[in-house]
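Before a colleague's protein record goes any further, I have to sign it off. Would you go through it and say whether the fold makes sense for this chain? Take the sequence as given and treat only the C-alpha cells as open to question. The record follows directly below this note.
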Amino acid sequence: MTTPNSDSSNLDRVDQEIRIERLKREIEQATGMPFVGGTSPDCDPNIHEAFLQNVLALETHGYVKPFDVLQQDGLILPPPEQLGDTAVKVKLWELIRVMARHRLYLHCTDHLSDRELYAWLYRDALHEEMMGLGLPFGDCHLDVLGGCSEEDIRLQMRYYASHEARARWAAQFPDFVMPPSERPPFDRDRHLPQSQDPF
C-alpha cells in the first residue's frame, strides 16, 4: 500500500531523473558529442545532478581571457613601461586582489620582481584563454613556471623544489644539469591570496 508521502517521494525521484537526462542532452548539445559519463550505483542523485549542472555551466560558459574579464570588472591595467617602480608595485597588488576575487590565483612568483611579474601578467598570462573563470564554483590558477619549459624546470629546481624533489629529478634525468639550490630573490608567494581566503 502506498502512502501520500511515498507517492510524493517517487514523483520527486522521477522528476530528478528527468532533470538529469535533460542535463545530459544539454551537455551533448553544448559539446556536439554524445554524453558518455556514468556513475556508480550508490552515487547520490543530488550530487550527480549538481555535477552535471557544473559540467553544463563550464561547457556553455566557454573560454575567456582573464585580461578581458578584469577590464570588464573596471580594473585599469596600464602598460608596465608607463608605471614607475612604486606605481607598478601598487598596481600589481591591486591586480592580484582583483584576480583573487575572481578566484584566479598565482603560484611561483618569488623569482620575479614586481615589474617582471606585472609585465608577464600584462603581456602573456592574462591573455591565455581559461575555462571556468567567472563561474560561481571552482578556482583557476596561474603558475609562473607552469609551461614546463627547460627554463621553467631549471627555475623550479633552483628556487622552489625541495631537496627530495631535486634528488628525485636528478635520479630520473641524470643528464639534467642541476642548478644550485638558492633562496628566491623576492618574498611574495607567502603573502599571495589563497583559495580559502575570504574576498
Observations:
- Residues 4-31 form the longest helix (28 residues).
- Residues 62-144 form one domain.
- DSSP finds seven helices and four strands in the chain.
